[in-house]
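Annotated sample (chain length 213).
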Amino acid sequence: MTTSPPVRPLFISFDGIDGAGKSTQRDLLTQWLTDAGHQVVLCRDPGTTEAGERIRDLLLHRKELELHPRTEMLLYMAARAQLVDDIVRPAIASGKTVLCDRYLLANIAYQGYASGIDPEDVRSVGKVTVDRVMPDLTILLDLPEDIAFPRLGKELDRMEAKGVAFMHRVREGFLKEASIYPHVATIDATQEIDAIQTAIRNAVTTRLKEMAK
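Output written by the structure step:
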């Protein structure tokens, strides 16, 4: 698909509305980077750490609990703080490449743009949470909500169960952020899997070359 990427540590997050295909594309990118000599650490946000996985269960699967968007945001932030300190920062310090399923951008889109919290307030809390550990590149898989929603199946988690209109607002939030911040690479996720992966690899290669200057 593309030439091998330079071998240097990189922190990449994957984001997009539910059903956009993040897991598939992350796994393909992991194999490509590993073949090129990168030591890859995989994580998901929220999750990965023991505390993060417990918070994830509460946030996504305890649907009997009524959670205000501010509560959701703060729980996500707590899980992320643990993830940064236990996994992400040590991995980067040891020269490894980190691929993370979601990160701060998700809260800005979901609890900010889609749920009514000022996105700048979410961003401010996030800056304290991540303590300057931000992705070198965010891969935003963009897919219309009317295509993504039918992919989700019958067992919807708390975020997915908010419906198509909510997902539309989330998507608009992602695209708004991508138009502002150059480290967000928007990839058309309506393409075939191989074409999406090619676009992702090109974005990663370009970012690595920029970082090498």
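Annotation: The two ends are 24 Å apart (CA to CA).
Annotation: The CA atoms of residues 76 and 197 lie 28 Å apart.
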